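Hi U.,

Before I forget, here's the chain from the pilot set. I'm dumping it here mostly so it's searchable later in email.
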Amino acid sequence: MLRAIAAARTGNTQIVTECLQRLAETIDETNTLLQRMYENCDPYVFYNRIRPYLAGSKNMGDAGLPNGLLYDDGHKPEYRQYGGGSNAQSSLIQFFDIVLGVEHRPTGTSRNDSPSTGDTKARNSFIHDMRSYMPGPHRRFLEQVDSIANIRSFVEARRGDSALCIAYDACLAMLRVLRDKHITIVSRYIILQSRSARQPSQSVNPSVPTTTNLASAAPTDKKKLRGTGGTALIPFLKQARDETGEPAIDAWARRLLSNGPADKKFASLSKVGEQPDGHLEVVGLCGTWTAEENEGGICHW
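Structure:
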């Protein structure tokens, strides 16, 4: 893609198109590799034995850490809050977003919301926070690419070139699929496991105190399940996925990839009982209807 950026500067449409086609194929290969997560990683083991160590101390009030952790260096003890492991810390995913011109907003805000003061910084606050957890060379590389990225504007100025536009929109489509698969993994490894963890205790002595899992603490239904990075998990992931399609050149592709209706004749469909914040109401024995091919047919629970 660095070659594509250089080619865009000289107006070489053919090279930019070829690079975008290759990028779409590469992201598709990444999607295939991501599916191997299921081969040797058991959801129960991940959630209960691994994820607690990935949880940070930021936004962890539900776990009894409203101020984070107390760091005592023997001189001046102070509370600090740090995010845990997050997919947003992936240099590769952020690179995809940057070169394709995908922008992300604070969770809960829409594209039509009026920008506030310091819009650029606020819009990318979480993404930029996660960059501070990356190795220095990775962070500086992304900053440099961000300063020279020109692919989106290059394609936008050449709407009449169908091969170029299709290649660009294909990259966005593959990136959206990647985020869809990530949501599926989160649902299986975190959402479903968190519900099992919150089932009433079967202990013969319910008065025996239980420990708090930092990665799953959510004492009431009103509490949002958070990722180890400190975000409201499902709303953040779904919005990031839908924002991926917003830069699409073709209007139909943009509507399809953004998961939003182009007009009143269209309406996006979600799973039965699914709330805007990602909460799923269990209905009957099946609970959740889905069309995902890796979740066992038409329904699973």
